[in-house]
Amino acid sequence: MSLFKLLATLALAVLTTTAAQAEDEAKVIRFGFPGVGADNRPYSHSTAIAYARTRETLEKDFAADGIKIEWTFFRGAGPALNEAVAAGQLDFFLLGDLPAIVGRANGLRHKFLFATGRNDPIYLAVAPDSDIRTVEDVKGRKVALFKGTNLQNATDRILERHGLREKDVKFINLDANSAVAALTSGNVDAVFGGQEYLALAQKGVVAIPYTTKGDDPTLGRNTSFLVTEAFATENPKLTQKVVTSLIATTAFASREENRAEVFDAWTAAGFPVATFEANFDGVRLSQILNPLIDDYVLARYTEQAEAAKAYGLLRGDPQIATWFDRSYLDRALEDLKLEHFWSRRGADGEPVEIGTNDTPTATGG
Predict the structure, then answer these.
(1) 60-69 pLDDT, tens digit each
(2) Which tens digits make up the pLDDT trace of 4-26?
(3) Number of neighbours of residue 352 by Cβ within 10 angstroms
(4) Do 314 and 105 form a contact (C-beta atoms < 8 A)?
């Protein structure tokens, strides 16, 4: 199914919502994204939200309502975005698991609407001539890590699976761009990060001795799409329309037949198509972009909350069990006839129900 057909389906699905739009007062909807693209570009990649931003799908869906869509990208990633939420500057936002949990525990009132990324691969990057060959080899080494982001606890879990703890490594807190500079200049021995290092590896600037791909299926980073409780309470129909629009876009991006188009859109973040081809090699986009709030998602966020407590990162209780609001997602899935489109996974990461888009005979239709 083409994006145009999906958007047509979306138009029908939200017809009643649009008719009742007068009940909602917002004229501007403010979206936040943790991080920036290469050279501080206000774009990102590897999520359907990033695709929606580049192709302006939300802008098109809300144009007839006279509602403006505003995007803010935060170089300081999750911690900086949490500050903006606390200041009342955002309505919807994408966040990694750790900063979302920390924000909620610290009193930020928001709802978890749907997952935006699961099992997003993590890479260990080193200098080409480094003697670091395995995760175990980083013991006692200087390693760059962007703390306070969803990379922190995810990296801790990698270390745990390989017999190490955070205290066994000399971590240096650096954002993604600074970490690249520190590694290439020799100021750190290694860095744990995302697919941005694949482009450097293809140029021979770094080597990648380890990735979570092919390792434990519960490893990798997880992200979510959230709305402030204030916006959802004041604008319930707009909230539903945002979710339905983004789920339609997620379905489009999840189809393998649209892989090239999605990768092309993500290049707006400043990374070449080859980076995404390498990162998602052997992986269906529907596996990463799956928006369902299934047992896998519940387990990962519960696990991350416990880890955050153990590291003393939480001042309060994030109340994970009452955080998830499935009502908007369920309505979108029903209206778009996508109830069985994505696979549902158990807490161990293994599928318990294969989605229609993930069956061996599925070609994306």
Answers:
(1) 999 999 999 9
(2) 454 445 544 544 444 344 457 78
(3) 13
(4) yes
